[in-house]
Each structure stands twice: as C-alpha cells, then as structure tokens.
Amino acid sequence: MGVCRPKDTHEFLEHCHALGAAGIQAGVHGDIAGEATSRADASRIRKRAEELGMFVEAMVVMPRGKDTAAFEQALKDAHEVGASALRAACLGTRRYETFPTLDAWQQHLTECHESIAAALPLLEKYKIPLGLENHKDWTDEEMAALMKKYSSEYFGVCLDFGNNISLLDDPMETIEKLAPYTVSTHLKDMAVDTYREGFLISEVLLGEGYIDLPRAVRLVQQARPNAHFSLEMITRGPLEVPCLTDRYWASFPDRGGMYLARTLRFVNTHKSTKPLPRISQLAHDEQLRVEDQNVIACLKYAHGNLGL
Hints:
The chain is of the alpha/beta class. The protein has helices at 9-19, 41-52, 69-81, 95-98, 102-126, 140-149, 171-178, 213-223, 257-270, 284-305; strands at 23-26, 55-59, 85-88, 130-133, 155-160, 182-186, 189-195, 198-204, 239-241. It has a single domain (9-305), classed as Divalent-metal-dependent TIM barrel enzymes (TIM Barrel, Alpha-Beta Barrel), CATH 3.20.20.150.
C-alpha cells in the first residue's frame, strides 16, 4: 500500500498524533494549507484535538489592504476551533527571488504595513495572538523593529529557526533577537554547503545541523513560556541563496560586505560533511515515506534531547 498525504486538517491531526506530535499548525478547517471547505470541520477538529490533548495553531492569510472580511472570518474560525495562536506571513516567497528592484520591495513594505495596521484591531477584538513568520523576507533587525512599532500582546513572531541565514543574518542572533516576541515557532535544524553563486541551505534531521537547538529552545522558553514548538521538517532538495549575484542585493539597501563576509565565513566553517539531502530522484511514494521517517526521527530527538 502506498503512503498517503493527509488531505485535510482532520486527517493531518490524526496523522500527527499517530507520529507522536503534541499539536498541529494548519488551516483551521479545510486543507492543511489553510484553504477553507466545510464550516463544520472546525468544531470537529476542536473536539478531536481536545480528546487527544493536542494544541491547534491556525494558519491564516493577512488582510489585503483595508479589506478585512476574510481575515475576520479566519479569526472566527480559529476561535471556534480553539486555536491557541495564529500563524501568518507577509510574503509566501523569498525576498531575493521576488523583488528585482528596491522600489518593488518598498511598495511591498507599504502594503505590509497597511495589512498589519488593519489586522491589529481584529486581533485585539478576538484576543488570539498572531505570529508573523520571518519567511525569508524580513531581516531580524527589520522584524524586531516591526514588533516594536506595532507593540501588542496579540501580535508577535512565528519564529522560524532556519530562515534568516538566507538574508545573511547570523542564525543564533536571529533567535536571540526574536525570542522575546515569539508567539509560535517552526523548529528545525539546518545544514549549508557552497555553490557557484552563493550557498545552499537544507533542512536536516534535528541534531545534525549547525543550530544550537538546546540553547535556541531555552531562549524561547525563557522569553515566552507559553509558545508551542511546531516541527517544520521539510523533506526536499537544497535551496539556493544566490548572494554573489547582483539581483540578490536589489532589495537590501542596508546590507553590505560585512554581512556577506560574515555569512560566507559561517558557511565555510559549518559546511556539511555529507551531501545535502536530495529526493527528486525518488518516486512519489518513496518521497512520502522518507518524509514520515524524517519527521518521526525529529520528534524522537525533540522528546529525548530537547524535553519537548
């Protein structure tokens, strides 16, 4: 029998419970990417999560400009499902691949600020904290400044442990800076290698990468003891960070040689001793089998080595 990917959030909840997870971060009803289907799913998921003793964090889409109708509906659904927190992002892609000019990036920033300003009153109305992910878009300095500008107990960070090296931030410094604002997390470990136009990054099994996971977890727990740790073990080939190309730098007016030199030095020092994972050559069922295998190994590490 082939391995099947869960088709909706209820199946995802059951699948994660079977693997040994303590909760999920997903769409509150509908598919696990957050696209809505039946409204009845929310109460069904809440009941089952309570039976299993699992937490639920809801993935939502930020408002588009001042149109908040869909966002408010997502908050109502999250409240119905008993979500302890929300996760959102201002950019679903990567900054250095998306914005060919500084003007394009600055236009995106204007839209981001409009979106956040529109979201805040609703977050405070429904009293569910939202974590905005550092999704290869905001540098850690920019994200920290954003948190200070929109200071609210219901607005914080979904702290991804591995993303910001792609913006030439020091991995542990990012966690140190953003831990005080953390609402939710993407717990992962990372490995790096060099390539002609910059460097490669890959998610790897917890404990096999360069992140000081015990310290990172401790920093979050000390700063935000109520934050849950959500594993994000993405089983895929390496991602390219083309930091030696002109286009990469178009949206980074405040970055310079110091950041580049520091990061390339880090990459050379922490270069993986074995090839980065690659799965494109595998059949689909085999890819899913490897993905489950990796998730189970990471959960065992988190339970046994991180006390999670």
